[in-house]
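note to self: the first set is below, dont mix up w the second
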Amino acid sequence: MLPESVQNLIDEFSRLPGIGPKTAARLVFYLLTKPENDLNLLGQAVLNLANNLVLCQSCFNIADSEICSICENEKRNHSLVMVVEEPLDVIALEKSFGFDGIYHVLGGVISPINGVGPENLRIDQLIKRIKKKDISEIILATNPNLEGEATAAYLKNKIKDVNDSITITRIARGLPIGGDLEYADKVTLKRSLEGRREY
């Protein structure tokens, strides 16, 4: 019943996480009320997202150049590496102002039920970083759920096989079980970092 262009946009919005068909339809009909210039700006912003962003060659966080601003910053402690699941986790942790080291973004967690094994994550790249750089501590900051715990355990064993002198810590349980880093408040994140323990 809807024009094809409207239905196509509703279908595309519906594919986004947390957006159902009704919300997608509301967004599309809202956009129909906006001036053409606003629609062009939105469209250009979406296109620029794909065209202007790259992954940092060091930590695999999103960046607009080959090395992100965090890895480039000489004031940060480059011997302290926090391993996280996704770039959103980096953003959340940076907002806490409780961490002055650098990151390594895995790109997910081990989840056999979803067909994600260690080979699908950036674990080999982490091991290469450990071999090349003088790293004193690895903080495992995967989410405190079943997959995050399994990934942390796997990483601990893998890192110890390569270099058993590196201190491996796990963020403290300031975060709720089943929660995601990206949704935690600043104080909880900061306390999780301060209360980390050897893993």
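second set (the one i keep forgetting abt)
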Amino acid sequence: MINILMIEDDAEFAELLSEYLAQYDIKITNFEDPYLGLSAGVKKYDLLILDLTLPGMDGLEVCEEVMEKYDIPVIISSARSDINDKVEALAIGADDYLPKPYDPKEMYARIMSLLRRYSKAKNTEVAAPKSDFELKGDTLYFKGEALSLTPAEFEVLNLLVKNQGITQSREQIINTAGNMSIDSQGKSLDVIISKIRTKLGDNKRIQAVRGVGYKLV
């Protein structure tokens, strides 16, 4: 699970975003008070979503303090449209700036993109270690054995491997797998997952997340 610290004084907005991201195994802990947020143990979180208009302390000040004390990716989430705020936030060290209002899907995409960049920078993975899987060229290996996969099976499994431990929606998988032919009920994805499980010889590695999609554990 990805743990995100959010400092946002709009409790309703924070709750809506939290409910949306929960389907992807992302937990948001929100603080309306920036002072409480800064004292919440910032380093135990994977990422910070920060509003700029906060009670008692400007968000830019919060961002500056976080940058000085912690190594954590920061996304500014603000309704302030002044370009100077955006420029200053990025100059201080914020990694991204997403103006309100926005679609929660875009926030999810930015979170995952940013965590991947941080993961590469630290030479570590965001999710659990993938010791059982290895990609060499266009071939995936499972426990040291090369897997014989169709193009569609490779695309689906490779996506799950890259995001191990993180739920991928059916829509994400279908859109990523360009070699898939999806019928009106989307049954082809379930067939491909079944065939991959058989080739892995392990039905428990790929879990179905009801109403959402699949994840590799």
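remember for set 2: The radius of gyration is 20 Å.
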